[in-house]
Specification:
This protein is of the alpha/beta class. The chain folds into two domains: 48 residues; 256 residues, 2-enoyl-CoA Hydratase, Chain A, domain 1 (Alpha-Beta Complex). The protein has 14 helices and eight strands.
Length: 315
């Protein structure tokens, strides 16, 4: 059953009523199909109204929903012949960032992304999607491999940020993030990045400095979390909603600012309510962007990516 967010309480109440009526429906003496249909229509209409006017903070909650599809779901739903590649050839294999060779709608690609996990054991295994330096160094290695063999790179971004622990700092976290961002910018092959949940800080940009940056309708992308921003500006995380609005971190705001290139629609109620539909929608968007970039010479790909990011600074 879908976990309901705070602002969905009315929908949750209606869905409980529907569930109770369905249980009563086993009694042949009762005819409650009309009541169920009426409540389902009311619930659907209410959900549509709520999601049509989400605040930036509410979008942040949706982006963090534990039932949203994760990297492994996108790989299973969009890619064939998945061959994971592990390790940074220096320290270890970071499970927060996964990557490997795959076939996407007949096209060989390198796919890399954050994996948060979807239960307690897997979240611990993947460190909640917060990568350490070896994760970014693995991403660098895989991007270089893709560049060497002329394979497009697809990245799926979903992280609250890079791991902030002292061990990561001791192993050069900032340098690894900078090098990964640099490698994105230096690729001579097409690169398409998609922010599918949270795009947090340098941990996100290290995989998202791409020719095309896509965002799901209810994803967020920012230099810091709303709670972190509020703690700095107002000395309290209680102002997180104000910070989310001020930072312009929604897909709609970022598209208007030309930070991203495309807003990918989600099913009504968020990607977690119809994950198969959301995955298919993202796949169509990625395919269209790769088609537009395919056939471009190396110099044109590099120049277009350079101009894209320089234009942000001139705006």
């Amino acid at each position: 059953m879908t976990a309901f967010l705070d602002f969905e309480k009315q929908v949750a109440a209606l869905d409980r009523q529907i569930a109770e009526l369905r249980e009563m429906g086993d009694d042949p003496s009762l005819n409650i199909d009309n009541d169920i249909a009426r409540l389902e229509d009311k619930s659907s209409k209410l959900l549509r109204e709520i999601y049509a006017k989400l605040t930036p903070w509410q979008k942040t909650q949706v982006a963090r929903h534990p039932d949203r599809p994760h990297f492994k779901h996108y790989v299973a739903g969009l890619f064939d012949d998945w061959m994971p590649l592990a390790g940074d050839r220096n320290f270890a294999d970071d499970q927060a960032i996964l990557g490997g060779l795959a076939r996407f709608r007949g096209r060989r690609v390198m796919v890399i992304g954050h994996e948060k996990g979807d239960d307690i054991p897997s979240r611990m295994k993947h460190n909640f999607g917060m990568a350490k330096p070896e994760g970014y160094r693995k991403a660098i290695r895989l991007m270089q491999l893709a560049d060497r063999f002329g394979l497009p790179v697809v990245t799926l971004v979903d992280t609250s940020g890079a791991f902030p622990g002292i061990q990561a700092e001791e192993r050069g976290q900032a340098e690894a993030i900078a090098r990964s961002t640099e490698q994105c910018l230096a690729l001579g092959v097409p690169m398409v990045a998609a922010v599918v949940g949270e795009g947090g800080s340098g941990g996100a940009i290290a995989l998202a400095a791409a020719n095309r940056v896509l965002m799901f309708e209810h994803a967020v992308y920012s230099v810091i979390s709303p709670e972190g921003c509020a703690s700095i500006l107002w000395r309290t995380s209680d102002k997180a909603a104000d910070a989310a609005a001020a930072m312009k971190m929604s897909a709609q705001d970022l598209l208007g600012l030309k930070i991203i290139d495309r807003n990918v629609p989600e099913p009504v109620g968020g990607a977690h309510r119809a994950p198969d539909d959301a995955i298919a929608s993202l796949g169509d968007a990625i395919a269209q962007e790769l088609d537009a970039l395919s056939g471009l010479p190396r110099d044109a790909i590099l120049a277009a990516r350079e101009e894209k990011f320089l234009a942000m600074g001139r705006a």
